[in-house]
């Protein structure tokens, strides 16, 4: 099996690659370095919108000059801390870009990254777009992508059925909590409305999918032509589109490897595809008679299967299972616990389909890193690309590595809202060594994260990572909810204090004092008069 | 071995006891010593393999006891509800004449009643083997008291067994319910092994899985602190120990042992040997290559165990496999030592077998020796449990426990069992942190023979416990035994507390017992063991587990962040004949251990599950279930 699929993958990849080249023709660097700002470098501005727990970044190349706008994601699970509304954000994007986005990117199919493309579709339809980039995993023509899509669909359906089933069996506190937690996870994939409308037969609704589809197929150029999405695979030559002079785009992932995409790290679990099937069969139509179920998926034939009220078993069960003394030992919902694994797998897999980009400014080699929500396995794959990363300089081809790109990183969009497993340590953060200028932006709303099920559990950002980020950036950590990372003692509201309590011991007052100086000197703009402003800017001059 | 207390003291059957309606002089048949029940030797997959078909079935001999439908006996109760498929199955009546007359229902994957019989038979057998080695009746974990979580004085008579509770490739013991849950699933379509792709596989039909899970429950009943994963070895030890019991239980089936001796020409170390493979069906069908855990034929790498950065070896199953392979290797050494003379006799002195099949008589003798070796190794391992520290066990400490327990039982190790264990462990890099040399003597736990002893005053207090010891011998039911132990724990606690506070030697004795007097302490276990040594004498022992804990921050950088429970304690073994504390296995609350436990606790907080679910919920989040999920 491995050899067969490997050849297939290679062939497929070649096709995708050539398609990418056609759509985004490369140009020699000589031309791109021609026009540059006073310091000899083209400036870039990264604008992080403050729409809550979710990503929405507007990267503007050469702001104030010949502006080129790139929108990376537009989604949220809600904003409690800032209270900003998505329509305000999208209106602001329209205003900033003059209604024309050069490059639109949807990194992966999750509510917190694409919800705006669905709910504010009509607003986006008033704007024009030149280019759309997506990961190869979103390519409807790609065989591997298709099989992943099917797998994700099956997982989602199984989890949806489990959530429904748990909702129908109230009483046990643990079971209810389990159902709510799985629901919160599933919401990433199908959105709140999808979760509310879990159909008995139809399976999960497709609201997130519709946001993705709109990005993929609904964009129009100023001339009114449809924009054909370009699907990127990792490794190989860096992209140097002639419409963003002076910059190279390295595609770091997602890896073209099903195992790596599914990898959940050392504490993860292997394939449980069979369980998804079983869960599906078992949960289907649970209120009807057992005989109505998918017969081959039943463990025994009909003559053995009894309802609890069947005289063959009722007396026995009353004396044992249903006996009040045994209430603490019942197992009615225990089997659904397996579905939490499926929910985690689904979340992990979708996160791992993130289009991860390193944007290099050619003139000084500085890198802006946008890994979306890539999980650890995804990060590790950057260091073993099937095709090495290359770029063309003065007519010759050079190779580079993920390590070099990480070394050069000056701006890091923190992955997956600061969760622990979305920033690799040894092969990630430890390699970002430019401590004197590194800035990290975390798109997160901690108060929203804490209200998800189970309450108070979501670790976004994670303590340990937060501390390491502060060290690596010497305090230059910006959060979309509160602005500069701050001493938790300074939290303004009671809710804020509660949300920040976990970080109480992150650093000493002396460290905070030093970090605040670094923050003041950093090239980050936060409107001090408006704690709930719409955005925060980083500028690479 | 001594006659282990008979599991059930109840009368034979309802019919036999209704003596009032039967003339007193009428014939009463003798009580059957065993109930014979047919089952799968390993799992159903052997049935369709021509080479193995003839040994695919075995007759389990389990102690006779009065049964109700379920089956429900003294120790276990099978309840066959199947929530995933929204139905339940009729309970089997193993006393039905038709079933009695044919040694149980014939093995069948398609009959749930046979499944009930299979789980009953294997759990009963495992319990029996345990009691045989321990020399006492086993008790399950206490029944939880939701109103007072610390209350552990409520007796839980039976372990519940749900043969069809899950729809996944999984089975586990849940301490919160004192129950075993077994799953079933469709065989993997990619690599179904001997199965039809997509066909139904039942974990409750695998002897090894059932024995494995039962062992978890038995261990937890003996010492519930074993389950707190405070270092990488703790859960691995649980897995390994459960596997050891499952593996060696196979050797008690003469049919398959003989067959495998013939097939491997006495070379049990061959990798193809069925006996060395656990959970064949389970492993293959869930899509893994080969059996789930195969132990033999792997060249040990001593550095793997010691390397704390080797993530592969920190995973409980892989790490546990190392311990299983060490014990299995010790078994092979013992077996080879025991059969060397037989092979020389059979080969005219050369010891080199001619090619081809071996003589059936030789095979029979070899099988006898293998069975004996296996029984001894299993007994050594089970007995060692009493000699393990109450918390935070490591493999090295298990080795010390095995050696110490064996020294107490067998003065003259003429067959070199202890040496075999030490050598096998050493080759895998498993040794305790704190011994100077790796010898039988230095591995023995601390006690008077190492110059450490309790004060005479404390030793004198032991005399007070003699009446309780004799009560234990005559105790009528397991409930009475449980209550007796609860009372004894209370008495010992009072006694020690008073001694520590008031006796002049109190402080020194507390230090000797590893008790930190600034914290309160509990007596978690107190039980008597009566063991017979090979010389025929009885050794009455008191085994006491002391326990303390304090909350410490999981991450020293975040003193107000998440707290973990740092546990310590000691196992005290006293000889009631001599009124002397013979050993004290200490796990004091030292800072070194605290740091180790912290760093281990931190290493588990990085997964996606933790990001979203934190501590988790339901029995599935209990340590044992989480390890088993695959």
Key traits:
heterodimer, A: 541 residues, alpha/beta, Metallo-beta-lactamase, Chain A, 8-stranded mixed beta sheet, 7-stranded mixed beta sheet, 18 helices, 16% strand, B: 630 residues, alpha+beta, Neutral Protease, domain 2, 4 domains, 5-stranded mixed beta sheet, 4-stranded antiparallel beta sheet, globular, disordered N terminus
Count of helical segments of chain B?
A: 20
- The CATH top-level class label of chain A: Alpha Beta
Could you describe the largest sheet of chain B, including whether it forms a barrel? 5 strands, mixed
First CA to last CA of chain A: what distance?
51 Å
Radius of gyration of chain A: 25 Å
Model regions low in confidence, pLDDT < 50 over at least 5 residues of chain A: 1-37, 200-205, 265-274, 283-293
Give me the count of strands of chain B: 15
Count of the separate structural domains of chain A? 1
Oligomer: heterodimer
What is the CATH architecture assignment of chain A? Answer: 4-Layer Sandwich
CATH fold descriptor of chain A: Metallo-beta-lactamase, Chain A
What's this model, at a glance?
With 541 residues, chain A is an alpha/beta fold.
Task: Write structural notes for this entry.
The complex is a heterodimer of chains A (541) and B (630). Helices cover 37% and strands 16% of the residues of chain A. With 541 residues, chain A is an alpha/beta fold. Chain A has one domain: 4-Layer Sandwich (Metallo-beta-lactamase, Chain A). Chain A has an eight-stranded mixed β-sheet. In chain A, strands 8-9-10-13-14-15-16 form a seven-stranded mixed β-sheet. In chain A, a hairpin with a 2-residue loop joins strand 11 and strand 12. In chain A, helix 6 crosses helix 10 and helix 7 packs across helix 12. The longest helix of chain A has 26 residues. The termini of chain A are far apart. The N terminus of chain A is likely disordered. The radius of gyration of chain B is 25 Å and the shape is globular. Chain B has four domains: 222 residues, no CATH class; 215 residues, Neutral Protease, domain 2; 137 residues, no CATH class; 40 residues, no CATH class. Chain B starts with 13 loop residues before the first helix and ends with a helix. In chain B, helix 3 packs across helix 4, helix 5 packs parallel to helix 9 and helix 16 crosses helix 17. At the A-B interface, helix 7, helix 10, helix 11, helix 12 and helix 16 of A face strand 4, strand 5, strand 6, strand 8 and helix 19 of B.
């Amino acid at each position: 099996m491995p050899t067969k699929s490997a050849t297939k993958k290679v062939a497929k990849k070649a096709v995708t690659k050539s398609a990418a080249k056609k759509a985004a023709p490369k140009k020699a660097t000589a031309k791109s370095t021609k026009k540059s700002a006073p310091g000899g470098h083209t400036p870039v501005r990264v604008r992080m919108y403050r729409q809550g727990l979710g990503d929405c970044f507007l990267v503007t190349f050469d702001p104030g000059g010949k502006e080129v706008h790139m929108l990376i994601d537009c989604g949220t699970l809600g904003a409690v801390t800032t209270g900003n509304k998505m329509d305000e954000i999208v209106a602001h994007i329209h205003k900033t870009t003059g209604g024309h986005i050069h490059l639109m990117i949807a990194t992966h199919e999750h509510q917190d990254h694409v919800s705006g493309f669905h709910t504010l579709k009509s607003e986006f339809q008033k704007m024009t777009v030149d280019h759309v980039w997506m990961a190869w995993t979103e390519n409807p023509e790609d065989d591997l992508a298709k099989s992943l899509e099917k797998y994700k669909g099956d997982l989602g359906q199984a989890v949806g059925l489990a959530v429904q089933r748990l909702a129908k069996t109230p009483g046990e506190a643990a079971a209810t909590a389990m159902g709510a937690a799985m629901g919160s996870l599933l919401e990433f994939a199908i959105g709140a409305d999808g979760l509310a409308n879990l159909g008995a037969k139809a399976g999960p609704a497709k609201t997130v999918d519709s946001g993705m589809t709109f990005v993929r197929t609904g964009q129009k150029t100023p001339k009114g032509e449809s924009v054909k999405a370009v699907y990127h695979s990792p490794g190989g030559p860096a992209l140097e589109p002639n419409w963003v002079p002076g910059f190279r785009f390295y595609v770091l992932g997602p890896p073209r490897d099903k195992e790596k995409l599914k990898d959940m790290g050392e504490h993860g679990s292997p394939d449980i595809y069979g369980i998804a099937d079983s869960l599906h069969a078992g949960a289907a139509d649970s209120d009807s008679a057992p005989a109505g179920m998918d017969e081959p998926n039943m463990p025994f034939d009909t003559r053995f299967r009894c309802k609890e009220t069947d005289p063959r078993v009722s007396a026995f069960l009353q004396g044992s299972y249903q006996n009040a003394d045994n209430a603490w030992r019942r197992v009615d919902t225990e089997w659904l616990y397996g579905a939490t694994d499926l929910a985690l797998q689904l979340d992990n897999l979708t996160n791992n389909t993130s289009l991860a980009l390193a944007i290099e400014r050619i003139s000084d080699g500085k890198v802006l890193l946008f890994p979306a929500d890539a999980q650890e396995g995804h990060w590790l794959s950057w260091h073993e690309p099937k095709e090495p990363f290359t770029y063309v300089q003065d007519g010759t081809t050079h190779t580079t590595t993920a390590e070099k790109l990480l070394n050069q990183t000056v701006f890091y969009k923190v992955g997956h809202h600061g969760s622990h497993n979305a920033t690799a340590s040894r092969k990630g953060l430890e390699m970002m060594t430019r401590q004197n200028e590194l800035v990290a932006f975390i798109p997160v709303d901690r108060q929203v994260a804490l209200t998800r099920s189970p309450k108070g559990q979501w670790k976004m950002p994670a303590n340990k990572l937060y501390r390491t980020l502060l060290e690596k950036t010497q305090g230059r950590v910006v959060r979309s909810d509160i602005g500069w990372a701050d001493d938790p003692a300074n939290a303004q509201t009671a809710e804020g204090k509660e949300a920040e309590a976990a970080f109480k011991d992150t650093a000493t007052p002396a460290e905070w004092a030093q970090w605040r100086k670094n923050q003041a000197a950093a090239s980050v703009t936060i409107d001090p008069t408006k704690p709930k402003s719409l955005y925060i800017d980083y500028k690479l001059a | 071995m001594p006659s282990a207390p008979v599991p059930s003291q109840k009368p034979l059957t309802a019919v036999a006891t209704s003596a009032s309606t039967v003339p007193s002089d009428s014939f009463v048949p003798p009580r059957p010593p065993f109930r014979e029940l047919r089952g799968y030797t390993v799992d159903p997959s052997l049935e369709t393999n021509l080479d193995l078909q003839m040994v695919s079935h075995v007759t389990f001999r389990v102690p006779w006891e009065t049964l109700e439908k379920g089956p429900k006996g003294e120790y276990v109760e099978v309840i066959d509800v199947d929530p995933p498929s929204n139905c339940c199955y009729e309970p089997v009546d193993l006393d039905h004449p038709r079933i009695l007359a044919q040694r149980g229902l014939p093995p069948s994957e398609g009959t749930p009643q046979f499944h009930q019989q299979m789980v009953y038979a294997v759990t009963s057998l495992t319990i029996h083997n345990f009691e045989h080695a321990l020399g006492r009746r086993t008790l399950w974990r206490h029944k939880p008291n939701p109103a007072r979580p610390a209350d552990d004085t409520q007796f839980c008579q039976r372990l519940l067994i749900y043969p069809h509770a899950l729809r996944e490739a999984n089975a586990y013991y849940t301490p919160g319910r004192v129950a075993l849950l077994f799953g079933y699933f469709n065989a993997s379509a990619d690599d179904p092994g001997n199965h039809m792709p997509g066909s139904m596989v039942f974990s409750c039909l695998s002897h090894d899985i059932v024995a494995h899970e039962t062992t978890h429950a038995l261990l937890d009943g003996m010492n519930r602190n074993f389950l707190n994963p405070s270092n990488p070895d703790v859960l691995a030890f649980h897995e390994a120990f459960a596997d050891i019991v499952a593996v060696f239980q196979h050797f008690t089936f003469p049919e398959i042992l003989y067959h495998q001796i013939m097939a491997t020409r006495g070379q049990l170390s061959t990798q193809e040997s069925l006996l060395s493979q656990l959970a064949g069906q389970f492993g293959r069908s869930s899509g893994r290559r080969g059996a789930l855990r195969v132990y033999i034929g792997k060249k040990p790498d001593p550095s793997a165990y010691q390397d704390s950065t080797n993530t592969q070896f920190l995973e409980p199953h892989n790490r546990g496999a190392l311990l299983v392979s060490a014990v299995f290797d010790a078994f092979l050494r013992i077996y080879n030592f025991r059969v060397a003379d037989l092979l020389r006799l059979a080969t005219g002195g050369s010891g080199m077998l001619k090619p081809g099949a071996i003589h059936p008589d030789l095979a029979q003798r070899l099988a006898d020796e293998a069975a004996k070796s296996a029984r001894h190794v299993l007994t050594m391992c089970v007995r060692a449990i009493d000699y393990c520290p109450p918390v935070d066990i490591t493999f090295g400490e298990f080795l010390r426990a095995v050696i110490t327990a064996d020294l107490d039982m067998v003065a003259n190790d003429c067959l070199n069992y202890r040496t075999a264990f030490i050598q096998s462990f050493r080759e895998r890099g498993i040794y305790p942190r704190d011994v100077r040399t790796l010898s039988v003597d230095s591995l023995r736990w601390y006690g008077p023979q190492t110059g450490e002893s309790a004060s005479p005053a404390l030793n004198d207090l032991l005399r007070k416990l003699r009446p309780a010891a004799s009560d234990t011998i005559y105790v009528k039911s397991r409930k009475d035994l449980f209550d007796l132990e609860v009372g004894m724990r209370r008495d010992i606690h009072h006694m020690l507390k008073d001694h520590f506070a008031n006796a002049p030697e109190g402080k020194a004795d507390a230090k000797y017992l590893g008790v930190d007097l600034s914290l309160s302490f509990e007596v978690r276990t107190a039980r008597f063991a009566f063991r017979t040594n090979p010389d025929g004498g009885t050794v009455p022992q008191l085994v006491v587990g002391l326990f303390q804990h304090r909350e410490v921050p999981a991450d020293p950088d975040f003193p107000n962040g998440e707290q973990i429970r740092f546990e310590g304690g000691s196992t005290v073994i006293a000889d009631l004949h001599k009124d002397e504390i013979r050993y004290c296995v200490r796990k004091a609350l030292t800072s070194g251990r605290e740091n180790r436990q912290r760093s281990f606790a931190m290493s588990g907080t990085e997964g996606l599950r933790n990001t979203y679910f934190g501590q988790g919920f339901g029995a599935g989040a209990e340590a044992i279930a989480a390890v088993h999920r695959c």
